[in-house]
Amino acid sequence: MGLKKLDVPTSSITEVKKSPMDVFAQARKADTGVYVFNREKIAGVMLTKEQYEALIEELTTLRDTLYQPVERELPVPEELEELATALRTTLAKGSVISARYLDERMVATGFITKKTGFGGVTEMMKELEDSGKIVYQLRRREHNKVIYAEIFGEAQEFQRAAADKLMIRKVNLIER
């Protein structure tokens, strides 16, 4: 098996020690980072200040775009504000969590588990796929009304091993 040729400029630690500005000039000229090797292993990547700032700006833009909620949450009745606050601190919009962890957090907040029997997480993900949300019922009644929490989200299929991951888009509390 032959060595794979990198499509980016490379340098050695020795060259960086001798003249770091030459390595920055190399990065600027190639308009990309320079891989720095130490004993035939990549030790790091050198970027110009402008390249680094552009990467950070792009990352921030992507995160902001990714974590924008699809819809606003419904207004919460005053008597449910404490419960709503607890849910907001537990389930941040835009966060990616496993269905198993979501269920544990909801049960800890006072809701009835969705993991009933074998394959409960699979059923939760199916509910999310079918309706765009997972609905939980609060164990206790408030003012003779049943309280439901609707967890809107979308399945995250970026990893095969993590088939139960979902991104939370919004959480609504509803009285019926």
From TrEMBL:
Organism of provenance: Enterococcus devriesei
Highest taxon of the lineage: Bacteria
The protein's name: Prevent-host-death family protein
Similarity comment: Belongs to the phD/YefM antitoxin family.
